[in-house]
Structures are given as C-alpha cells and as structure tokens.
Amino acid sequence: MTQDGRLVRGERTRAAVLDQALLLATVNGLDGLSLSQVADALGVSKSGLFAHWRSKEALQLAVIDHARAQWTELVVAPARSQPAGVRRLWAAHDSRLAFYESGVLPGGCFFANAHFEFNARPGVIRDRLAAELRDWMAFLTRTAAEALTLGEVRPGVNPEGLAYHTESLGVCAVMQAPVLGTGPTFRQARQALLDHLRSITTNPTILPELT
User: Fold this and answer.
1) Which of 115, 140, 144, 159 is most buried (CB neighbours < 10 A)?
2) Phi, psi (rounded to 5 degrees) for 31
3) β-bridge mates for residue 39, sequence order
4) Which of 88, 111, 84 lies closest to 99, judged by CA?
5) For residue 201, what are the β-bridge partners?
6) How far apart are the two ends of the chain, measured CA to CA in Å?
7) How far apart are CA 201 and CA 157, in angstroms?
8) pTM score > 0.85 for this model?
9) pLDDT class for 158, splitting at 50, 70, 90?
10) At what angle do helices 124-149 and 159-180 cross, to 10 degrees?
11) Residue-wise pLDDT tens digits, 64-118
12) 129 pairs with which residues across the strands?
C-alpha cells in the first residue's frame, strides 16, 4: 500500500472511531469514555487506537472537535443558508431541534450533557467546552444583533437576551424530551420561540407557521 493509501485508511479509521466515541459519550458521559470502551464497540485493538490518541484526555478533546464539526454541518450551516436576521435565528433553533429529533446522537445533545458533566470540574476539558459555548452564544447574539440592525425587531430589543432565550428553549427541550415525549416537547419549543419572535418582530409574516 502506498503512503497516501495508508494515510487515507488512517483517516477513515480515525473518523469511524470518533463517530463511535461521540455516540458513546452522549450515553455514558465524556468522562466515561475510554480507548478500551471505543475499541470494544468497534471490534478493534486498543493498541491501534493508541497510535491516534495517547491519552484519555486527548481522545476527549478530539471528540469535542468532532462534535463541533457535526454541529456546524447539521445546525449552523442550515441556519446560515437563511437570510440574515430573524429568519436565521429561527432557522438555528429549528435546525437544532431537527438535529435532536433525528436521533443521530442516542443521548440527545453532546454539548448539553458534557456541560452539565464538567461545569464544576476545572481543567482542560471544561475550558474547551466553555470555549465552544461562548462561540455558539456569540453566533446567536450576532444573529440577533443583525435582526436589530436590519430593523426586523423593535428598537430596544436586547440581542444578548434574545440569544439567551433561544438557547434556553433548546437546552430545555432536549433535556425534557426523553421524559415528556419527543413530539410534544419539540413542538412546544418551536412554538415558544415563534411566539416570542412574533411579539418583537416588525413583520411577523416573514416567520413560518407550524403545521
């Protein structure tokens, strides 16, 4: 096999391992993740994985990066495809809930789970998770601020508050859905943001109606 062929195979193996590790982390926790656990799930040797990650912490950080890439592809990118302002903020919320509804991750939300797990545990993992949350909140806040600049929401609307409102509904929904039911919970989360956006927007007709 050529050097390029080995590199391609190595990257495929790495991606498959991270896919499996991300799934396991949403169920067993990021701290419960280990090279042995991932190796057993994939039916490969632990020594083969050790060539990619020399420690549990290195694997955890790689999983966070992998989760961010997945979130960017399935949540942020669909939102960015929509017009700036209120419609983009709504799309971010809607695509997030659609991501949860898809069942891609059996434990619901990697980031919400990991934040709860590591919030009281200072260290490298908590710092990385905090950076991801700040980036996400900055995206929501910028989107809300664009709505204000475009005149799509009433003067005086606080972009930080609107971002916080949007985030709160998303986190609450993914935490309650397994107990209260996926369908009713996500519908309520969508309707709650739509109602709020309609109450502050200058043109409610740009927002969709739930069917």
Assistant:
1) 144
2) -75, -25
3) none
4) 111
5) 153
6) 54
7) 10
8) yes
9) very high
10) 120
11) 999 999 999 999 999 999 999 999 999 999 999 999 999 999 999 999 999 999 9
12) none
